[in-house]
Design goal:
Layout: E1 2-7, E2 10-16, E3 32-38, H1 42-50, E4 54-62, H2 65-76, E5 80-87, E6 94-98, E7 108-110, H3 124-129, E8 132-136, H4 138-141, H5 143-155, E9 159-163, E10 185-186, H6 190-197, H7 202-211, E11 216-220, E12 226-230, E13 233-237, H8 250-263, H9 268-283, H10 295-304
Parallel strand pairs: 1-4, 1-8, 2-6, 4-5, 8-9, 9-10, 10-11
Antiparallel strand pairs: 2-3, 6-7, 11-12, 12-13
Helix pairs in contact: 1-8, 6-7, 8-9, 9-10
Length: about 300
């Protein structure tokens, strides 16, 4: 699988466990502080590389030490970074994530260079030559830019997928509508389906996305797993029962596992099983890059671990 992961790249600084921020000049001891590559493009690239894909990432970073660290972390994971544009006048996107004891992760986020990515930055030849283009966070670069890139990919036989970034409450159908006919696989979470579609019911929201031209909608639903839908029908795929340490990067890991499954010729539901396995493996530690696993290990995990009951 030769894939270009394009879009949002973030350097995450994770602190665990955090029950409260000390008042004033106070301090408290924590167990762990880590920095990882993350984002709907960067985080997905990490897990795709683990699962055996050949990955090159494209996006915008600052020409700053934060960007240097992000590039180093991606390269260490085996991700190609030659298509990452560096901006002298804009910082690299970063987040500070105080991880609560139950795995929840509030975020302090710097938007940074991600919103500056445009058509002049796109590695068009690499997109045309790739088996797959994954675009993370199209709403940040604008739907017209996203539609142009995705349509170019489809015209050259490249399979396309999209993962959304904005919370559902900030979404609107106009932010994504023009791109939808060019998307083979859309990978939102449940709140994003409702927010971006404007519907009150998940089934109606998924149907609106399919009717607008998306090939497959694979919806992540946290501990309930995923819902995979096509024009022919929908199927529920349960999540795996694991002790969750941190939910950071689980959505990106699902995307990576799902897309790797698709590349291997698996059905959407079978691909979602691999996605849920990758998410479960990442969830058991701190950060998007947690877990020393490959495709065989993820498949073995899926075959031998219990799932949550489907509601």
């Amino acid at each position: 699988m030769n894939v270009v992961t394009m879009g949002v790249h973030v350097l995450d600084v994770l602190v665990r466990p955090v029950e409260a921020i000390p008042e004033g000049q106070g301090a408290t001891l924590v167990e762990d502080i880590r920095m990882t590559a993350a984002g709907t493009a960067g985080g997905t690239a990490l897990t795709l590389a683990k699962l055996g894909a050949s990955v090159r990432s494209a996006g915008a970073l600052g020409a700053d030490p934060t960007g240097d660290m992000l590039v180093q972390l991606l390269q260490r994971a085996g991700v190609g970074t030659e298509f990452l544009a560096r901006r002298a006048d804009t910082p690299t996107s970063a987040s500070v994530l105080p991880i609560r004891p139950n795995g929840d992760r509030p975020s302090l986020h710097l938007l940074g260079a991600n919103i500056t990515y445009g058509l002049d930055d796109v590695p068009w030849d690499a997109v045309a030559e790739a088996d797959h283009l994954h675009l993370g966070g199209p709403e940040l670069i604008g739907v017209d830019v996203a539609a142009r890139v995705l349509s170019f990919a489809r015209e050259h036989g490249t399979v396309t997928s999209v993962d959304l970034l904005a919370p559902g409450v900030l979404g609107s159908f106009e932010q994504i509508e023009a791109a939808l006919p060019h998307i083979d696989h859309l990978l939102p979470n449940e709140d994003q389906v409702l927010g971006f579609s404007g519907e009150q019911d998940l089934t109606a929201g998924v149907r609106k996305l399919l009717d607008a031209g998306v090939g497959v909608v694979a919806v992540t639903r946290g501990g309930e797993g995923a819902l995979v839908a096509t024009a022919e029908g929908a199927e529920t795929v349960p999540a795996f029962a694991v002790d969750v340490a941190d939910t950071t990067g689980c959505g990106d890991a699902f995307s990576a596992g799902y897309l790797r499954g698709v590349s291997l010729g698996r059905s959407p539901a079978e691909a979602a099983v691999l996605g849920c396995a990758a998410a479960a493996l990442v969830a058991q530690g701190l950060g998007s890059d947690h877990g020393d696993f490959d495709l065989a290990a993820a498949d073995e995990f899926a075959a031998h671990h219990k799932t949550h009951p489907v509601s």
